Amino acid sequence: MTIRDNPLLSVIIPTRERPETLAYTIKTALDQDSRNFEVVISDNFSHDNTAEVVRGFSDARIRLINPGRRLAMSDHWDFALLHAAGDYVLFIGDDDGILPGGLDKLEACILSTRSAVYCWPTPIYEWPMDGKPARIVYFPSTTQASEVNLEDLARRVVAMGGWRYPLLPCMYHSAVAKRIPDSIRQKTGRVFHSTQPDVFMSLVVPVFAKTAIDLGCYVSVPGHSGKSNGAINRRSARDEHFCKFIQEYGDYKIHPTLFPDIPLGLNLTPDSLLSAMDKFPDFYGAMRFNYDAMLAFLLELDRIVYKYKLSALDVIAKRHQIQRYHPLHVSRFLLYWAFHQSLRVWWKVLWLAGVRPPRPPAPPLPDNIADFVKSLSGPNSVPHALGRSK
Questions:
Q1: Which residues are CB-neighbours of 254 under 8 A, at least 6 positions away?
Q2: How far apart are the C-alpha atoms of 15 and 48, rounded to whole Å?
Q3: CA 384 to chain centre
Q4: Beta-carbon contacts of residue 54 (< 8 Å; ≥ 6 apart)
Q5: Alpha helices of 248-329 — where are they, by DSSP H?
Q6: How does pLDDT run across 55-71, given as a tens digit for each residue?
Q7: Cα separation values, 114 from 90, 108, 216, 232, Å
Q8: Listed residue (17, 186, 219, 270) closest to 101, CA to CA
Q9: CB 45 within 8 A of CB 24
C-alpha cells in the first residue's frame, strides 16, 4: 500500500542543523499504522548531515524539501506549508515526538467528527543537557474529549493580556484544516506575520474556526533540547541569540505599542499576539488588549522561563516611560500581578492538602524522546468518548 497523493494529514517538521534530535523525531512520526499521512521535513539550508539523516529512513511517507537558502523562522514555516498536500496540517519541532499510534487515533477522530481544528494535552520533555539528565517540564492530565469554544477562549486571552494563549490551538502540536492557512494566505498574502508563528496562529485560528475538538489524550510531546529556544532562554547568551534571531527578519519592528526596554525575548510574545489582532480587525477590532494584565503576565513569564529577574517595582519605576507606548494603570497592574502571586500560593495549598497533579513516569527518564513517548503509550493515549463542551 502506498501513501495517497492527497493524504488526510501533513506532519510538517521544520529543521535547522539538529540531526542529533531530528532522527528520533522522525522515528516517532513513522511509528504509526496509517499510510494516510505524510511527513514533510523542511531543511532550512542546513550545513551538516541533516539530509543524510532524513534519507536514512526508507519510507514513502517522508518528503524532504529545502528552500535553497537560509530563511527566518516564519518564512521557513510559510515555505514548508506551501508543500503540504494533506487536508489537515500539524507542525512539530525537530526535537519533539509523536506517541506510537498517536496519528492513527487522530485520524480516527478526524474521520468521525470532521472538525476544522484538533488539539490535545502535551507533556513537555527536556532532553539531557548541560550535564543534567532528561526531565519532564510539564505533565498535564488527560480528560474526556470535548468541544472547545475558540472564540470565547480568544476573548479571554486578549482580556488577560495574552495569559494562557498556549491553550489555543495554533498548528504547532495541534491539527488544523489546511483551508484555514490557505484562507489566511489568500486574505493577507502569507500565513505568518510575526517572528513567532505558533504564537501568532494562536489568535488567528479562532478567526476561522469557532470551535475545536480537544481529544483529551496525548498525541504528541514538545521537546526542549540544547539548541532549542526553550533551553537558550535560560542561558546568559540569550540576548545575543534573540538579536541574531530578529536580524534574520531584516527590518522587522516590534509592535509600536510595546515598551522597547522590556527584554526582546519577553516582548516577542505580545508582539505576535498584537500582530494577529491587527491583521484581523473585523474579528478583534472591538476587543481591548489588556496591557496592565500583559505586564503582569510578562513578569510571570520572566520568573518561569527567562530569568531576567524583573519585578513589579521595575514596572512602577518606569511607568511614565511605559505610558508613552501603551496605557498603564498602576493599581490595575498590581491587581493582575497579585492574581498571579495568588495562583502560586493556591497551587502550594492544593499540594499541601494532598491534591496532586498526575504522576509522570519515574526517573531516570529515557535520554531521547523516541523512548520517552513509548513510555507514555497506554491508557493515557487512548481518546475518551467525546464529552460536553468546555
A1: 260, 264, 267, 268, 271
A2: 12
A3: 24
A4: 22, 26, 41, 43, 62, 64
A5: 264-279, 281-284, 291-301, 312-317, 319-322
A6: 999 999 999 999 999 99
A7: 15, 10, 16, 38
A8: 219
A9: no
Under the banding of pLDDT at 50, 70 and 90, the label for residue 351 is confident
Query: How far apart, in whole angstroms, are the C-alpha atoms of residue 314 and residue 329?
Result: 14
Q: Spell out the domain ranges in the chain.
A: 9-228, 236-352
Q: Which three cell numbers stand for residue 217?
A: 489524550
Radius of gyration in angstroms for the set of CA atoms belonging to the chain, rounded to a whole number: 21
- Tell me the whole-structure pTM to 2 decimals: 0.94
* C-alpha cell recorded at residue 153: 477562549
Handedness of CA 322, 324, 327, 329 (dihedral sign): positive
At residue 34, the 3 state secondary structure works out as: coil
Scan for cell 507542525, then name that residue: 91
Q: End-to-end distance of the chain based on CA atoms, in angstroms?
A: 40
How far apart are the C-alpha atoms of 258 and 26, rounded to whole Å?
39
Amino acid at 219: V
Q: What is the CATH number of domain 9-228?
A: 3.90.550.10
Q: How far apart are CA 15 and CA 140, in angstroms?
A: 27
And the C-alpha cell for 287? 476587543
Residue 184 sits at the vertex; the CA angle it makes with 61 and 254, to the nearest 5 degrees, is 105
Q: Are 135 and 156 in contact (CB under 8 A)?
A: no
Segment 69-79, tens digit of pLDDT: 999 999 999 99
Q: How far is CA 146 from CA 29, 161, 310, 325, in A?
A: 25, 26, 38, 40
Going by C-alpha positions, the residue among 385, 386, 373, 389 that lies closest to residue 101 is 373
